[in-house]
């Protein structure tokens, strides 16, 4: 842009110099040539200035759109990782991927044209940095443990790993999300998980920390005020005020902490074990990748409109038309996957034929649980617990 303007200006200078020469000369034909030249050059200058200005304006509008409440979905969709269509088609249609035995973690990125969000979908925050799906193939002989919501309870996490006899060389650890918040050492849990090469999915509390950290890194902590104001992210399912308590965690995270937590996908698929891991649940009535991320991280039930709902069992009146999402899942099974999930401390351990709920409320002083996928053996320890009111 600068170069164009600069060269236009210097050409103009050249032309003006030549014009002065022309003023001295009486030749009409020569003058006509110069007049035409000026007209042409004027057009070039207008184009040279107008085009960059309009491009610049489009950029500014895009930046403004990032912050405006009515966020343009196109822009947000670019923030979501993208997927290979052939693999996706296989997942959604046959649900039978023959995984390559040598592969470790394959990051599947989603082609947005294949995603058809349901009408109840929420805006995805521009700071979400969310991967929708990872496909993972564990080593053939490995024990594969799925551990429920840890919520910063590092001591309990380590004690349960001791009980299991966990060995990071041979065993695989997968976390159902909500590694952070409420417990005593959220950062410690992130670092321990990273150290163990644990896989994970994103929980609703992890998501808040990631969004606040993303905003903080982009605009600075000083921009996060007044404290009662809502962070501009569009129509997200859970608007965050600048005084949100998750900021305390975001503030002390380093780049590695952030990258680890942000790298936890919404859905972890393990085709060789016919397993799938999410934090909250899945809408059984739509295809896997169409699932609304906020709902996957927050849902517990399906409501009478067959939409995901975050309302808790304890708050449901007996007359509620809500059903546990796992009930709906069992009556609409279209694949062989067993879904491992957390987030529902009120219900606690919930072992069903195709769904395994693992949040047993450790941070509320109940238990921390893990299950080994191949043997379905359950391991639990008692937790010391923090104050809180079952906000999962
Ligand atoms: C998004 O998260 C990944 C880790 O999954 C990280 O490498 C990348 O830097 C993050 N992007 C931004 C913009 O923070
Ligand atoms: Mn949760």
Automatic annotation (TrEMBL):
What segment(s) does the record annotate as region Disordered?
A: 300-322
Instruction: List membrane-spanning regions.
Output: 32-55
Signal sequence region? none
Where's the Calcineurin-like phosphoesterase domain? 143-345
Keyword terms of this UniProt record = Membrane, Transmembrane, Transmembrane helix
Entry's Gene3D superfamilies? 3.60.21.10
The highest taxon in the source lineage is: Eukaryota
Q: What is this protein called?
A: Calcineurin-like phosphoesterase domain-containing protein
Native organism is Mucor flavus
């Amino acid at each position: 842009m600068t170069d164009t303007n600069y060269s236009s200006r210097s050409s103009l200078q050249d032309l003006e110099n030549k014009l002065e020469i022309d003023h001295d000369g009486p030749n009409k034909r020569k003058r006509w040539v110069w007049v035409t030249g000026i007209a042409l050059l004027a057009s070039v200058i207008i184009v040279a200035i107008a085009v960059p200005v309009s491009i610049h304006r489009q950029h500014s509008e895009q930046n403004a759109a990032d912050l405006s409440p009515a966020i343009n979905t196109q822009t947000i969709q670019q923030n979501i990782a993208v997927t290979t269509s052939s693999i996706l088609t296989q997942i959604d249609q046959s649900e039978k991927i023959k995984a390559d035995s040598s592969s470790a973690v394959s990051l599947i990125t989603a082609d947005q044209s294949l995603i058809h969000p349901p009408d109840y979908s929420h805006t995805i925050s521009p700071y979400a940095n969310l991967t929708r799906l990872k496909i993972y193939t564990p080593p053939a002989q490995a024990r594969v443990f799925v551990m429920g919501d840890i919520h910063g309870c590092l001591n309990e996490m380590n004690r349960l790993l001791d009980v299991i006899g966990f060995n990071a060389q041979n065993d695989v650890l997968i976390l159902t999300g909500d590694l952070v918040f409420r417990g005593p050492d959220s950062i410690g849990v992130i670092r321990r998980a990273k150290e163990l090469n644990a896989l994970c999915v994103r929980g609703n509390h992890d998501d808040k920390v990631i969004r606040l950290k993303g905003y903080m890194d982009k605009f600075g902590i000083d921009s996060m005020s007044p404290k009662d104001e809502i962070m501009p992210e569009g129509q997200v399912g859970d608007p965050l005020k600048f005084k949100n308590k998750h900021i305390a965690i975001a503030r002390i995270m380093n780049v590695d902490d952030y990258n680890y937590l942000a790298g936890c996908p919404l859905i972890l698929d393990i085709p060789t074990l016919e397993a799938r891991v999410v934090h909250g649940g899945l809408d059984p009535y739509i295809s896997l990748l169409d699932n609304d991320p906020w709902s996957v991280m927050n849902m517990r039930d399906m409501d009478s409109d067959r939409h995901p709902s975050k309302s808790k069992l304890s708050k449901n009146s007996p007359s509620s038309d809500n059903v546990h999402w796992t009930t709906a899942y069992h009556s609409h099974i279209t694949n062989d996957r067993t879904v491992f999930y957390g987030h529902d401390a009120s219900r606690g351990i919930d072992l069903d034929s195709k769904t395994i709920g693992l949040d047993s409320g450790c941070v509320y002083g109940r238990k921390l649980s893990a299950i080994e996928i191949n043997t379905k053996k359950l391991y639990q320890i008692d937790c010391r617990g923090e104050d809180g009111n079952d906000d999962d």
